[in-house]
Amino acid sequence: MNEGTTPAQEGPTYVVAEAERGVLAVSGSDRTAWLNGVVTCDATLATPGRAVFGLLLSKQGKIHTDLLLLASADRLFLAVAEGTAELVRTELDRMLVMEDAELTDVSAELALVSVVGARGLALAQGLSPAEGSVVAEVERPGLRGAALLVPRAELAGTLARLEAAGAVRPDPAEWEKVRLARRVSSFGRDYGPGDNPHEAGLDRSAVSWTKGCYLGQEVVFMQDARGKLKRRLVPLSVPSGLPAVGAELRSAPGDVVGEVTSVAPLEGGAVAFARVRAPHFEAGTRLLVSGFPAEVVPGPV
To answer: What CATH number belongs to 12-181?
Structure first.
């Protein structure tokens, strides 16, 4: 916190239950080295107290799921997108050969809670969470704060205590507005199994370019080396107007160049994500959506 800055001036701290996410646990002495050769993020950076955002890809480089990787003293935890836990478990189990690593689906036992904002980590650490909980700092662009894995029986109480400590618990519509204003995309809404990391706009936030190989790495590397994309997911600013999900984007000559994937009202206009074809996805590009002016803006910071 800067000198003279109060918590109120930093903006709200949001608490969001992500109980729909599946949670897989990996134990064994080889857990970190093995997982590091599978996921896109650097698994060695997931240590007690620190979480890492990444992806699990197919060998063709397409996104199976996004994930938040957390650690306790003896296990790594993957909090994966809704509806993907069984696929992820199957894919990871297939890649276990001789490693000392054991994979367990603990979705029925643990739930993810995100605490987003400058005070997020302090609020999470001040909870004295229940036995079996994991608390970690998250530095994902747009969603900096903390993540907690808590026993599902403790979920309601954890949310209540965070609210009592000053966190704001938005309803789904309010949270959609917050995430879009922060230019944070969502698996299943904005990107999914048909996208690679570059197309999803996650090539710099969810992929490590300094570690060794991982599943799908060759395809991702070649895409980066070529530097040419046919389409990309980008955030949009619509200063006046509220387009619908699925609305077409048009270039100045009137050609269809993309479509809206998610949208929320903001300050008389809207914020949105859209899949946009090259060369129209560069920041600063002006387009039309449902007759309203729109502009491609940079991603989260």
So the answer is: 3.30.1360.120
CB contact at 8 A, 76 and 46: yes
Task: Give Cβ neighbours of residue 38 (< 8 Å, ≥ 6 apart).
Answer: 56, 92, 95, 214, 215
Over 40-96, what HEC string results?
CCCHHHCECCECEEEEEECCCCCEEEEEEEEECCCEEEEEECCCCHHHHHHHHHHCC
Could you tell me which residue, 129 or 33, shows the higher pLDDT? Answer: 33
Element (H, E) at 178: helix 172-181
* Sequence ranges of the domains in the chain: 12-181, 230-296
Q: Per-residue pLDDT tens for 206-237?
A: 999 999 999 999 999 999 999 999 999 999 99
Does residue 288 have a pLDDT over 80? yes
Buried b (16+ CB within 10 A) or exposed e, 165-203: bebbebeeeebbbbbbebbbbbbeebbbeebbbbbbbbb
Given a contact cutoff of 8 angstroms between Cβ atoms, the answer to whether 276 and 258 are in contact is yes
Fold of 230-296: Elongation Factor Tu (Ef-tu); domain 3 (2.40.30)
- The helix or strand, by DSSP H or E, that contains position 33, with its residue range, turns out to be helix 31-36
Helix (H, G, I), strand (E, B) or coil at 35: helix
In tens, the pLDDT along 106-153 reads 999 999 999 999 999 999 999 988 889 999 999 999 999 999 999 999
Distance CA 152, CA 19 (A): 8
For residue 261, the tally of other CB atoms under 10 A from its CB is 20
Look up residue 191 and give its DSSP letter: B
pLDDT digits (tens, 9 = 90+) for 261-280: 999 999 999 999 999 999 99
Tens-place pLDDT, residues 52-94: 999 999 999 999 999 999 999 999 999 999 999 999 999 999 9
